[in-house]
Amino acid sequence: MPQDSAVRPYAGETYYGCPALKASPFGWKTAGYIFLAGLSGSAQILGTVADLGGGREKRNLVRNARGLAIAGTVVGPALLIGDLHTPSRWYNMLRIFRRTSPMSIGSYILTGFGAFSALTLGADRLGLAGVARVAQVPAAVAGTGMSVYTAALLSATSTPLWAASPRLLSVRFGASAMASAAAALSLGERLGGRPEGAETLDRVAMAASAVDLVASVAAEREYKAEGVAGPVEEGPWAPVEKIGAIAVGAAVPLVCHAINARRERPSAALSVLGSLAILAGGMALRSAMLHAGNRSATRPRDYFRFARPRPALDHRPAPDRIAR
Q1: Is 324 part of a structural domain of the chain?
Q2: What are 111-130's pLDDT values in tens digits?
Q3: Inter-residue long-range contacts of 54-62, CB under 8 Å, 24+ positions, other chains counted
Q4: pLDDT tens digits, residue range 231-277?
Q5: Which distant-in-sequence residues (6+ apart) come within 8 Å of 165 by Cβ?
Q6: CA 252 to CA 248: how far, in whole Å?
Q7: Same domain? 186 vs 220
Q8: Per the UniProt record, which residue ranges are transmembrane (predicted)?
């Protein structure tokens, strides 16, 4: 075998067309968990910020945020446990702690977030405002982890699409989570007859959607550069990614909220449309990435193309520097 065979370009080798990896067994339930985990974590962050800096006029917003946080920690894990195939796995993760395992860290983030969120909401309902104010801080810190840890969990695998762009996947999940939380709370403010609060949340959603859109475009380019873009460019999940996650989930709300930001009297219809688009797009993003990732695991060409050794960089000084 030639000495340079370890760094030669990928020539199309496969396991006779058989997958080199085994796709994950997870489906829509896990996608739903990933969506709700991010939404609930970011909702707790927004609720904490509103409580610490918003005064009594933000009281309803704070309570809605705390309710969303609890709803996410109840419904989301139930979906995840239902998709584990062996439900007892969930509590086995709490028997050990491995700082190098995103799944182990994520289990403790979820447990801590659920505990502090429950304490915050419970104290609030019992009239213990001081206890709730203290407990919401660690809940918000754990909420930050809830917003992005699922991206690290996927990126830590050998699945080409998930591992190809770990940082941008985290940015997409985090930005989408913040936009989704702001959108859900904005709808709550609209229903409660508090348009001023909805307008503030719409601005948060607009900024998060802009970050999501930029990260989505950058991720598409990186997937192409790594040679793993097939599942998001063709097949059943390509339109879910491009139309559902990017167009509906990021571009449409960005336009709606940008138009409203220029108006003296923002349109309630545009606000609601933008919020609903964000929520639909957030779920589409998680579904597309989960299922397209599973599809990339069954494509041996994608795996070998992505996993091939990269040529070592030549760090020798340039000739003109030697001469000097």
Answers
A1: no
A2: 899 999 999 999 999 989 88
A3: 58/197, 60/188, 60/189, 60/192, 60/194, 60/197, 61/185, 61/188, 61/189, 61/194, 61/197, 61/201
A4: 999 889 999 999 999 999 999 999 999 999 888 888 999 999 999 99
A5: 219, 222, 223, 226
A6: 5
A7: yes
A8: 31-53, 65-85, 105-123, 267-285
User: In 3D, which of 291, 219, 301 has the Cα closest to residue 20?
Assistant: 301
Task: Indicate if 36 and 168 belong to the same structural domain.
Answer: no
Alpha-carbon separation of residue 98 from 54, 95, 107, 302 (angstroms): 38, 10, 11, 30
Question: Are 163 and 297 within one domain?
Answer: yes
Domain-ending residue, one of 128, 156, 184? 156
Asked if 228 and 269 sit in the same domain, the reply is yes
Say how far apart CA 247 and CA 277 lie, in whole Å.
9
pLDDT in tens, 171-199: 999 999 999 999 999 999 999 889 999 99
Question: Is the Cα torsion angle 81, 84, 87, 90 positive or negative in sign?
Answer: negative
| pLDDT of 7 over the 80 cut | no
Q: Measure the CA–CA gap between 39 and 148, rounded to whole angstroms.
A: 10
Q: Within this chain, do residues 164 and 152 fall inside the same structural domain, yes or no?
A: no
What is the domain range of residue 277?
A: 159-302
Per the domain annotation, does 320 fall within a domain? no
Q: Are 160 and 302 in contact (CB under 8 A)?
A: yes
Residue type, 182: A
